[in-house]
Amino acid sequence: MKLFSRIFGEGKPIIILHGLFGMSDNWNTLAKKFSKDFCVHVVDLRNHGYSPHSSHFNYKLLSEDILEYINQQGLFKPVIIGHSLGGKITMKLVATQSSIVEKIVIVDISPRNYDIMFHQNILKILNAIDLSKHFSRQEIDHTLSNDIPDKNIRSFLLKNLYRNENKLFAWKFNIDSLLNNLHNINEDFLIGKSIDIPALFLKGERSNYITVKDENLIKNHFSQARIKKINHAGHWVHAENPDQFYLEVSSFINL
Which domains, and CATH codes, for the chain? Predict the structure, then answer.
């Protein structure tokens, strides 16, 4: 599958992989900052952003997509930064292809399964909205507010709206495929061995995605793992404290 990407700068390659419901646009500001020293590829995963839609969605395919992208672009030993779902895809990739990557940065996710109920509910809420009856983002935001009271989450989701060829609102991500395959990103995650590659795990101070128990799990799977806390940040670490995020990642890459 040929994935959409945005490419900034020149130099050592960095690939950035967003999380579920995300897209490359979410990373533009940080990508431009990294591009002062690196060539940054911000990729849209399948069924997200401007990348193709597919009825198939699991870690094996998602990691193969990234391997194909690396080969298509002719990237030598890239550093991969993966947030949440993107982090799991990165871990899945290096479990079988560690030699093609120089280092990895895993953002607020651990190599284990997570409860998918929250994401499943989000998808069901979005799927229930008849976008053809809404004529502004404000209207859609108001409708969503009944079931999703958190304004930050709504704002994040609304970035995925666009107008289709009929000038009607539509979602960039493939809701049907994500709903049908969501179980795959919960049940299909196994590494099964220790991986000897430089790895930085960043956890949000206010997030519970990486627990103390997870830190032991991470070190069991990644023999060179470093774990750092990003202050004053929840799960969207890179958005909530971009300055510390940039410093930690830059220092790690330049080691």
Answer: 5-114+190-253 (3.40.50.1820), 117-181 (no CATH)
